[in-house]
Amino acid sequence: MADLALQFGGDLAIGPTGDLLLSEGTTLTQQRVLRRLLTNPLDYIWQLNYGAGLGKYVGQPGAPAAIAGMARTQILLEAAVVASPAPIVGVMAQTDGTVNLSLSYTDAAAGETSALTFSL
Q1: Which of 18, 75, 82, 116 is geometrically suited to a Cys-Cys bond with 106, CB 3.0 to 4.6 A?
Q2: What CATH number does the domain containing 52 carry?
Q3: Is the pTM of this model over 0.90?
Q4: What is the domain count for the chain?
Q5: In a domain? residue 72
Q6: Residue 5 falls within a domain, yes or no?
Q7: Which residue spans within the chain are E strands per DSSP?
Q8: Which pLDDT band holds residue 4 (cuts at 50, 70, 90)?
Q9: Among the listed ranges 2-16, 41-55, 102-116, which one has the minimum average pLDDT value?
Q10: Are 67 and 74 in contact (CB under 8 A)?
Q11: Is pLDDT of 2 > 80?
């Protein structure tokens, strides 16, 4: 099922026909995973326990391990992500305080491995 194309923190996009752009398949799964990982708990008023709030870990002692654990737990809550094989989460803290995440998971709809990389 398609949904509006909306990257976390971005704006709605216009499609080639002038309508709102839709997202589906692996792109939709990536949008949902990114939204879940970056949304703070209590910020989504319809589901208060939704979200990992990974941004709060930046600059904290032990942040890479905490981020990896939280990301692994939260990504498995998405119905579009297959639990087996387990998602692979890589976290790399940079000297400037930035934290880079790389996720590898199996998309349930496509049955293929997908990768998602982003920075906090």
Answers
A1: 82
A2: 3.10.450.40
A3: no
A4: 1
A5: yes
A6: no
A7: 3-4, 22-23, 88-93, 99-106, 113-119
A8: low
A9: 2-16
A10: no
A11: no
70 touches 57 (CB < 8 A): yes
Q: Which domain holds residue 37?
A: 25-119
Q: For residue 60, is pLDDT > 90?
A: no
Distances from the Cα of 109 to the Cα of 7, 15, 53, 60, 63, angstroms: 20, 23, 26, 36, 32
Residue 56 CA to residue 34 CA, distance in Å, equals: 15
Q: 60-88: string of b/e by CB count within 10 Å (b at 16+)?
A: eeebbeebbebbbebbeebebbbeeeebe
Residue 94 lies in a domain: yes
Least confident of 5-9, 18-22, 29-33, 97-101: 5-9
Query: Residue 36 and residue 77: Cα distance in Å, rounded?
Result: 9
Between CA 75 and CA 65 the distance in angstroms is 15
Q: Are 116 and 103 in contact (CB under 8 A)?
A: yes
pLDDT tens, residue by residue, 17-57? 888 877 777 888 888 899 899 999 999 899 999 999 988 88
Residue 1 domain flag: no
Q: Chain centroid to CA 116: how far?
A: 8
